[in-house]
Amino acid sequence: MDMQVSFLDRLFDAGLLIETGVDGLYGRSGQFEDVIAAFERLIDKVGGADGAEAMRFPPGMNREFFETSGYMKSFPQLAGTVHSFCGSELDHMSLLKCMEVGDDWTKDQQATDIVLTPAACYPLYPTVARRGRLPKTGGLYELQSYCFRHEPSKDPARQQLFRMREYVCMGTEQHVTDFRQRWMDRGVEMMKSVGLDVTIDVANDPFFGRAGKMLANNQRDQNLKFELLIPITSTAKPTACMSFNYHQDAFGTKWGLYLEDGSTAHTACVGFGLERIALALFHTHGLDVKTWPENARAVLWG
Amino acid sequence: MNETIRELLTRVGGLPVAVSELEDGADLYAAGLSSFASVQLMLAIEEAFDIEFPDNLLNRKSFASISAIEETVSRILKAREAA
């Protein structure tokens, strides 16, 4: 924990992250954003020729889609819902009174149709499903979004609102697992090219509760999730900066994603944790980008 | 025990086939048991037999077939008797 707090304090002192008073909710400096922009250009360079269809969604998604996704079955503790005041003028008066005396004014807020996006690819599946069957070549999509996960922490690498860049592949089992393997190889090469020390390991999602323990064990037993790990605030427990997920036909079945021959599509996604990658670079090379190794600078800004 | 497991499987398994038609050794995942349904089955079994699965038995193998579930539950019950 101490290492996490001291790195966070150094980031604040250097002005790279901006304190807001809430753990895991930070502003970013122009310099911090420039590193993220440079890394995204690197991602474009590596993956650009694959011809993915780019889509951008805001960091909120249709609550109905969120409910269908089953997120609440697995990660109820991480979800963030958007609530608003929907009352009358009289209700407004009691709301103000409640705030004035310091009571809980949020308890009468009503759920809106919007839920904060938990992963950049969540709005994609229903969007693609609406289009009908996938073409013979399958589907490849590129996304980036701020994502929300309710897990307040002093670890700068565990933020509540952060950006995820993703590639999502839909097709046959072979097609999507090849895609995943290709990005595992590319991810290692990319991180090496900017001077980051990485390992890849089998992983599991943070499923909720004891039932979640079983889901996590199942995920590991079937090698469904791998993570690319880089030491940021701990060398013993390095941070996941990329993840490589094979969903089998779970999303295909859930959303009705079909291939041209009518079979259910398999899907896989590869995610870059953009803030985490920037933090790994700052942690490894120092808080002043001008002093970063020349070859890493050349790859990012050359 | 076999009967109770079959009853619970019928109730929470969500299988597209009749549980009565499944052999004890039949692969439940191949029969359509989803990972979420396997979790619900795990919780239902814990309640019915008043047991708690230790972490090392919370995996696909423990719930792969009716006989695998029987074996897992028996192991837990036996361990409890011995304790």
UniProtKB/TrEMBL annotation, chain A:
It comes from the Bacteria. The keyword Ligase applies. SUPFAM superfamilies: Class II aaRS and biotin synthetases. Keywords: Aminoacyl-tRNA synthetase, Ligase. One of its GO terms (molecular function) is aminoacyl-tRNA ligase activity. The keyword tRNA-binding does not apply. This is Seryl-tRNA synthetase. It comes from Xaviernesmea oryzae.
Automatic annotation (TrEMBL), chain B:
It holds the Pfam family PP-binding. Residues 1-80 form the Carrier domain. This is Phosphopantetheine attachment site. It comes from Xaviernesmea oryzae.
